[in-house]
TrEMBL record:
GO molecular function, one term: glutamine synthetase activity
Domain GS beta-grasp: 3-82
Gene: glnII
PROSITE patterns, A to Z: GLNA_1, GLNA_ATP, GS_BETA_GRASP, GS_CATALYTIC
Function: Catalyzes the ATP-dependent biosynthesis of glutamine from glutamate and ammonia.
A Pfam family recorded for this sequence: Gln-synt_C
Listed EC numbers: 6.3.1.2
Catalytic activity: L-glutamate + NH4(+) + ATP = L-glutamine + ADP + phosphate + H(+)
Record-linked InterPro entries: Gln_syn_GlnII (IPR048091), Gln_synt_N (IPR008147), Gln_synt_N_sf (IPR036651), Gln_synth/guanido_kin_cat_dom (IPR014746), Gln_synth_cat_dom (IPR008146), Gln_synth_gly_rich_site (IPR027303), Gln_synth_N_conserv_site (IPR027302), Glutamine_Synthetase (IPR050292)
Assembly description: Homooctamer and homotetramer.
Source organism (scientific name): Sphaerisporangium corydalis
Name used for this protein in its record: Glutamine synthetase
NCBIfam families: gln_syn_GlnII
Source species, domain of life: Bacteria
Keywords: ATP-binding, Ligase, Nucleotide-binding
Length: 337
């Protein structure tokens, strides 16, 4: 007998990479071999030397095909087996290893928007729905659009064994969120990319497209973010490290903003529960700050922080690399590890 392996990888599309996948039939009991693809069709190689290599790095049961079939997330390599320049996972690996002793955890809140017929699901043809106010965590056919897709996606993520921790309807009609984590930087990012692939794949069966566009509707409508919750062992056991991490993020604003997703300036305007991208701030319970310290964390004097800046279209390998690099370095320097 044989099984089907869906090889998934991240392409070279600018400015936001996209997911690609193709299927390989493997003999029962056979492991997952490296494979190749045409990099000239994914903005990853010139036509004259088009071969790129797929190296399996994470696999899980395939909840779409069921049975013994699997999803296989891959890193992209050059034919000399070195990481391709678009391989942000390889860049994260070295930083994660450098600070592995601090035991970083991440929980990422992935917001996204369903589109059908060129407009968000729930938007009437040629117009706008009632203003925002009742859609967030809403219930009922006048407030909620696409729940059957969201439920199918949640079931698929659970069946695949991903570290999904919840879902909710968002502030704009057709806008939703799922959360992955808490998990280490590599695991949360691997699971996020597979969860994104499952979202696109399942919505496809409903004739709907899911988008990570950070500002899908201009004007007085919320954008879509990827709030990134972060802690280290020290932050989970004391408050001084929480403050050290917040202060450290304030010293590297430009570098972080540049890695938090394309068109971030259009989303972090200072309106719609955001802080302006150019002005760093942090505060307890403050959803208008760049970084929020949850109220319970201040009460407990330990826990985690929420970086509210990453865009929905961010690359979690880049976001977690930046946060681990900045915060763990500062905690180490402060002797708070
Ligand atoms: P919000 O109130 O901002 O909407 P959510 O409940 O959507 O928050 O998401 C919070 C995320 O933070 C979840 O994915 C959760 O697993 C994660 N989380 C909880 N505790 C920690 C921690 N100590 N370190 C990192 N992430 C955490
Ligand atoms: Mn949330
Ligand atoms: Mn949200
Ligand atoms: Mn949040």
């Amino acid at each position: 007998m044989t099984y089907k392996a869906e090889y998934i990888w991240i392409d070279g599309t600018e400015p936001s990479a996209r997911l690609r996948s193709k299927t390989r039939i493997l003999a029962d009991g056979a492991g997952l071999p490296i494979w190749g693809f045409d990099g000239s069709s994914t903005n990853q190689a010139p036509g004259k030397a088009s071969d790129c290599v797929l190296k399996p790095v994470f696999s899980c049961p395939d909840p779409i095909r069921g049975g013994d079939n699997v999803l296989v997330l891959c890193e992209v390599l050059l034919t000399d087996m070195t990481p391709h320049v678009t391989n942000t996972r390889a860049q994260l690996t070295s930083v994660a290893e450098r600070y592995a002793d601090q035991d970083s955890w991440f929980g990422i809140e992935q917001e996204y928007t369903f589109f059908k017929d060129g407009r968000p699901l729930g938007f009437p043809a040629g117009g706008f729905p009632a203003p925002q106010g009742f859609y967030y965590c809403g219930v009922g056919a006048d407030e909620v659009f696409g729940r059957e897709i969201v439920e199918a996606h949640l079931d698929a993520c659970v069946e695949a064994g991903l570290a999904i921790s919840g879902i909710n309807a968002e502030v704009m009609p057709g806008q939703w969120e799922f959360q992955i984590g808490p998990a280490g930087p590599l695991a949360v990012s691997d699971h996020m990319w597979v969860a994104r692939w499952l979202l696109y794949r399942i919505a496809e069966d409903f004739g709907v497209s899911a988008t990570l566009d950070p500002k899908p509707v201009k004007g007085d409508w919320n954008g879509a973010g990827a709030h990134t919750n972060f802690s280290t062992q020290a932050m989970r056991s004391g408050y001084d490290p929480i403050i050290t991490a917040c202060e450290a993020l304030g010293t590297k604003v430009d570098e972080h903003i540049a890695g938090y997703g394309a068109e971030i300036e259009n989303r972090l305007t200072g309106m719609h529960e955001t802080a302006p991208w150019s002005e760093f701030s942090y505060g307890v319970s403050d959803r208008g700050a760049s970084v929020r310290i949850p109220w319970q964390v201040e009460v407990d004097k330990q826990g985690y922080i929420e970086d509210r800046r990453p865009n929905a279209n961010c690359d979690p390998y880049v976001v977690t690399r930046l946060i681990v690099g900045t915060c763990c370095e500062a905690l180490e320097k402060a002797g708070q590890v």
